[in-house]
Amino acid sequence: MASAAALLIFFGMRRLRGLQARLAQVAAALVMGAAISGMHYTGMAAAGFPEGTLCLSADALGGDNLGALVIAATVVLLSITLVTSIIDARLQAHANRLANRLELTNRELQEANDELQRLAFNDPLTGVPNLARFDDRLQHALALASRRPDRRIAVLFIDLDGFKPVNDSWGHAVGDQLLRQVAGRLRALCRATDTLARVGGDEFVLLLEDLDDAVQAEVLARRLLNAVGRPFEVEGHELRIAASIGLAVHDGGGDGLRLKAQADAAMYAAKRAGGNQVELFDPARHRAADPSGLLSDLRSALERQELCLFYQPKVCGRSGRVRGVEALLRWRHPARGMVPPLDFIPLAEAHGLIVPIGYWVLDEACRQIAQWCARGRRLHVAVNISALQVRQRDFVDRIDAKIRRHGIDPSLLICEFTESVAMDDVQRTQQVIDQLSAMGVRTAFDDFGTGHSSLAMLRQLGAHELKIDRLFVKDVASDAQARGVMQAVVQLAHALGKRVVAEGVETAEQRDVLVALGCDELQGFYFARPMAPEHLIDDDATAPVPFSPSTFVEA
Ligand code: C2E
Ligand code: MG
Ligand code: MG
Question: How far apart are CA 285 and CA 302, in angstroms?
Answer without folding.
Answer: 26
